[in-house]
Design brief:
about 475 residues; alpha/beta; 5-stranded parallel sheet; 17 strands; globular
């Protein structure tokens, strides 16, 4: 694949960032593309490794060596067709996926994996520029109607696949615009929202009907869907946040991350906030509890809002700077990662537990913390305090919201509180109802949601028609 000796002749080079001092002044994307020739050079590094473990590392099973080879040989259009055969939305994953494919790359054994994510993004961006990413309406209609509830990446992928198969697809979204977590959870500086708008328009041209501002289980009874449609896909998010029920939790200034981040996304897109209390970090000492991607997004957003200081707390111990390749490869390794937002300025503390909040006049002012051992037990004598005017809880999500739609439908839940279904049929416990994405698997990556949406669409098509040409 690529140039046989490319990995020996060409050094790894990835996209760069605009300086932090410039990018924190706005909410625009700040990644600088490599350019066509540099991207071709990087594609040439894809080696003839025999077993391409990158296939298994990629949840949507992109044919990575193939599109690398096509880019190297300057056949960008075929590279695009190859890429879109496995991934409905490469412009999303090319921007926000953590790239497990690169961790699985054979060249990662020497810490120089092929820049797969960058190449993927370059292919799809060029496809849109050249006009190759055209709507693909079906050649015939099946006469079957399918409802998809939730327009995040899983719902969008399922809806697009089923519309292209000829079904009459109706996608329901409780918010004003489609996109789910992509639109309301991920900051614009990581992915601008016109990429979603462009896909929505494409899907409308393919026959998908969008019903926004319709909250199933609130504005419309869920049971109505089972009567109106031949199949119903539940593809909402895992939106029940993990709380921190300790002393002082009721103080003003302590908020869930997913109450904070969507507000700023709505400000950027000039969407109304619907009279909710503004949560702003400007001029405040901010503490983010949670060391994952959501916590990182809180850091970047707080920095742009003008926070005085930002501290991020993680209860897990500090991971190693480098993994042991012989033990971890080709799996995703546990190692210290520093995001672009963390590079913009934040203190990071590991193995820290918050024991209580204290404040004045009902407003949070301090966190009382302690370091913990490997069993997450407090270590005596390591107590300390942190000044805080704003605390953002970014500790993940436990399961989808049960009140409303799920309780009304009465579908079975798994032990973790997600809608129970396997990855063979994606079938829920009730007739006609399927489920995929975070609602089925729990909080996960956008690329996993796309995979499940595509696979679920195939199973729905098979159930409705008795056969299917949709890929898994």
């Amino acid at each position: 694949m690529g140039k046989i000796t490319g990995f020996l002749e060409i050094d790894r080079q990835d996209r760069s960032y605009k300086p932090a001092s410039d990018r924190i002044r706005n909410y625009n994307e700040f990644v600088i593309p490599l350019g066509e020739e540099k991207t071709r050079e990087q594609a040439a590094r894809c080696m003839d490794c025999g077993i391409p473990y990158c296939h298994n590392g990629c949840p949507v099973n992109n044919q990575i060596p193939d599109f690398n080879d096509l880019v190297y040989h300057d056949d960008w259009k075929r590279a695009f067709h190859n890429l879109q055969s496995t991934n409905n939305f490469p412009e999303f994953t090319g921007r926000i996926c953590p790239a497990p494919c690169e961790a699985s790359c054979t060249l990662n054994l020497i810490d120089k994996p092929v820049t797969i994510k960058t190449i993927e993004c370059a292919i799809i961006d060029r496809a849109w520029e050249e006009g190759w990413a055209q709507p693909m309406p079906p050649k015939f209609k099946t006469g079957k109607k399918v409802a998809v509830v939730g327009s995040g990446p899983a719902g969008l992928a399922a809806a697009q696949q089923l519309a292209r198969a000829g079904h009459d697809v109706h996608l329901y979204e409780k918010n004003a615009k489609a996109g789910g977590l992509l639109r309301y959870g991920i900051p614009d500086f990581k992915m601008e929202k016109h990429y979603i708008d462009r896909r929505v328009e494409q899907m409308k041209a393919e026959g998908v009907t969008f019903h926004c501002n319709v909250h199933i289980g609130v504005d419309k009874k869920a049971e109505e869907l089972t009567k109106e449609y031949d199949a119903v896909i539940l593809s909402g998010g895992s939106e029940q946040p993990r709380d921190l029920p300790i002393e002082g939790r009721d103080l003003h200034g302590i908020h869930f991350a997913m109450n904070f981040l969507p507000q700023q996304n709505r400000r950027v897109s000039e969407e109304p906030l619907d009279n909710v209390e503004p949560i702003l970090a400007g001029g405040k000492h901010v503490v983010v509890i949670g060391g994952g991607d959501t916590g990182s997004d809180c850091i970047g957003t707080s920095r742009r809002q003008g926070a005085l200081s930002i501290t991020q707390l993680e209860i897990m111990p500090k991971p190693p700077v480098m993994e042991n390749k012989l033990l971890t490869w080709p799996d995703w390794p546990l190692k210290l990662r520093t995001s672009s937002s963390q590079q913009e300025g934040a203190e990071r503390e590991f193995a820290v537990m918050t024991q209580k909040f204290t404040g004045e006049d009902g407003q949070v002012k301090k966190l009382h913390c302690v370091h913990v051992d490997e069993n997450m037990k407090p270590i005596a004598g390591t107590e300390f305090e942190l000044k805080a005017d704003l605390v953002l809880l970014a500790m993940g999500f436990v399961h989808p919201v049960h009140e409303g739609m799920l309780e009304e439908l009465g579908v079975e839940l798994d032990p973790r509180g997600n809608v129970a279904a396997d990855t063979i049929r994606y079938k829920a416990s009730r007739e006609k109802i399927f489920t995929c994405g975070d609602m089925r698997r729990g909080q996960s990556l956008v690329v996993w949601a796309i995979r499940e949406g595509r696979q679920c669409a195939r199973e729905v098509d098979l159930a409705l028609m008795g056969k299917t040409d949709l890929p898994r």
